[in-house]
Write a structure and sequence with these properties.
2 copies of one chain form a homodimer. With 236 residues, chain A is α/β, with parallel strands linked by helices. Chain A is built from 10 helices and 10 strands. Chain A has 2 domains: 114 residues, Tetrapyrrole methylase, N-terminal domain (Cobalt-precorrin-4 Transmethylase, domain 1), CATH 3.40.1010.10; 111 residues, 2-Layer Sandwich (Methyltransferase, Cobalt-precorrin-4 Transmethylase, Domain 2), CATH 3.30.950. In chain A, strands 3-2-4-1-5 form a 5-stranded parallel beta sheet, with helices on one face. A 5-stranded mixed beta sheet of chain A has the order 6-7-10-8-9. The longest helix of chain A is centred in the last third of the chain and has 18 residues. In chain A, 48% of the residues are buried. At the A-B interface, helix 1, helix 2, helix 6, strand 5 and helix 7 of A face helix 1, helix 2, helix 6, strand 5 and helix 7 of B. Strand 6 of chain A pairs antiparallel with strand 6 of chain B, so a sheet runs across the interface.
Chain lengths: 236, 236
């Protein structure tokens, strides 16, 4: 029996961003499959509805890979794929597997010889990089920086040096409620001529993307508390 | 007078991939603006038509930032933005500014205080990373590796070490007609247990994405000549 296909389905980054997030192919895809592996069942059902799912939700088979289920193994998630059923993989926001869990599911699919098809959709990293004006020929995404103040400050210096040495954009994130202290730390630590791009609330009505030097940012510090944000450093 | 907005408009990666590439918001955006800054006028007009442009093409004002024009400066490209007109920025494939020119236009827009809005669309880097099953919490895109054989082999070893040291996915590209020698070099140089993802012809009917160990790839080498491809290395 031929194996099914694992579709990687990005979801919106913000509320009321459906028109900015879903391609017609994505809408067709979700209407052609009935089985999903998701990070959170409740939000997954909400996204499917928002994208234009016509299948009654009661007909869907949804596997939740939240922490509890992950401990008990993901083997059962692949039973449908093994008998030829196509399955969608979705995370909580953005692209599954990118700054998000989900990669382990994809890894397992490859090991089983299952075809993996990634769909176009929103990624805050890509949107921010595009909009930063920084080098997109060479860049690193670091995820979260250390929480400890001294270590974090050391890391920021390290990223600045990496950027200069490799002519490379350095990208990182922070938990939204810690954005303000993070920004404070960057403004205190980085060189006045280093450029910093702050991208917050991407694809939402309050979207904010600006690139300035550290010296310029110091004059007027934006309020980032609890706003999903992404930071990009570039030092030439 | 308020300044215009610079919209960053991704374009398809392959022929006949419109339904996989364009969101409704992108279609609305191109139908609300009449001025563009593009890498290639001819392909830009083709993309606009493919996306569903209703404005007659003769009414569009298109600035081409091909090599010749770049030398003579980009100042005139911003005249519309300075008098409040919104302008779209498009490259030849994928997202403007990412593994592509365009970043200098965005950089200049930020310096002039022009609002920059990135639109969701296809990026081969992001699609490949998502589909690789590798670490998406930490990754580097290196662009092209050195052409010289000895230097390239050294670089591949370096990426392998970086990946192991930082638990980081290493991503790079090659000119399509050099893909086969590149793959040969990787298979010769990298550790048999290192995992390599090859993503070719993304979003096209012949799309190919597979992750295997170097040892597994050596048993059956795919034909990549002239196919747009992206390589991802991960060594644990």
């Amino acid at each position: 029996m031929p194996l099914g296909t694992l579709y990687l389905i990005p979801v919106p980054l913000a509320d009321e961003a459906a028109a900015k997030s879903f391609t017609p192919y994505l809408v067709d895809t979700i209407n052609s499959i009935k089985e999903y592996i998701v990070e959170n069942e409740k939000t997954a059902r909400k996204f499917l509805k928002e994208a234009g799912l016509k299948t009654p939700q009661s007909e869907l088979l949804i596997h939740d890979y939240s922490k509890h289920n992950r401990d008990s193994g993901t083997g059962e998630f692949f039973k449908g794929l093994q008998v030829g059923k196509s399955v969608g993989l979705m995370s909580e926001a953005g692209c599954p597997g990118i700054a998000d869990p989900g990669a382990e599911i994809v890894e397992k699919a490859h090991r089983m010889g299952i075809k993996v098809v990634p769909l176009v959709g929103p990624s805050s990293i890509l949107l921010a990089l595009m909009a930063s004006g920084f080098n997109g020929q060479s860049f690193t995404f670091h995820g979260y920086l250390p929480i400890d103040k001294a270590e974090r400050s050391k890391k920021i210096k390290e990223l600045e040096n990496l950027s200069e040495k490799n002519d490379q954009t350095q990208i990182f994130i922070e938990t939204p409620f810690r954005n303000n202290p993070m920004l404070e730390e960057i403004l205190k630590t980085a060189h006045p001529k280093t450029r910093l791009c702050i991208a917050a609330d991407l694809t939402s009505a309050t979207e904010f993307v600006q690139t300035k030097t550290i010296a310029e940012w110091q004059k007027k510090v934006p309020e980032l508390h609890k706003r999903p944000a992404i930071f990009l450093l570039f030092h030439r």
